[in-house]
Amino acid sequence: MLYSFTDQPLLDPYDIYQHLMDYWAATYRVIEKNKKGGEKDKGWACDLLPKPYLVARYFAREQAAIERLSAELEATAAKLAELEEEHGGEEGTFSGFDKINAAAVKERIKEVGADKTAAEELAILKRWLQLVAAEAALKKQLREAEAELDAKAYARYPKLIESEIKTLVVDDKWFAALDAAIHGELDRVSQTLTRRVKELAERYETPLPRMADRVAELEARVNRHLEKMGYAWK
Q1: Which residues pair with 31 in a beta bridge?
Q2: What is the spatial distance between Cα 181 and Cα 175, in angstroms, rounded to a whole number?
Q3: What is the model's pTM?
Q4: What is the spatial distance between Cα 196 and Cα 206, in angstroms, rounded to a whole number?
Q5: Among 86, 91, 221, 230, which is 20 to 30 Å from 141 by CA?
Q6: pLDDT of res. 188
Q7: Is 42 helix (H, G, I), strand (E, B) or coil?
Q8: Residue 128 neighbours by CB distance under 10 Å
Q9: DSSP label at residue 88
Q10: DSSP 159
Q11: C-alpha distances out from residue 88 to 99, 100, 130, Å
């Protein structure tokens, strides 16, 4: 690692090496929280091939479906929260609720009944029930999809051959992590150089002759003021 980056003028090879050591330490260290919330080291272990790497290579379609469900669930939950906040004021639909839940909403729908003057309130209550039902359905679909993917991944492990394991561990896991760390180091160096170039550009924006002319102009102006005040010098 050190030799590979020795001839790179913008990178310190020891900084790159430190990224490798940080990754190595994070991979092997097992952390557990104590009663006060602090971290304590519980020993050393190595999860050689975590599930996400297997999933990314062999079950990308299933993972994408899970991510879509998750995004849809988040959007539905946001709509539900927005509805409750929008109509939760003093004169809002949910203002009289001790707690907003399905039982309370259904009870209120019964109370409103066929009252035509409460059509807007009724629509809001029914919309709330629709969103809650949609949220519950999405949660169920998400749990089932995650369980199915987990089962597929678990069943795939025993079928991996040596070359596949090497690809997953070396290319997908180790090299990908190091590549991200190296690019991060390059970005850091690039930002530092950009900042220094900007500082130099600002510092030397005005040419020296122009600065000298400005100094002479100011000096002459000061001298004229001194003469008016009666000061004389050789």
Answers
A1: 41
A2: 10
A3: 0.59
A4: 17
A5: 86
A6: 84
A7: strand
A8: 22
A9: -
A10: G
A11: 11, 10, 18
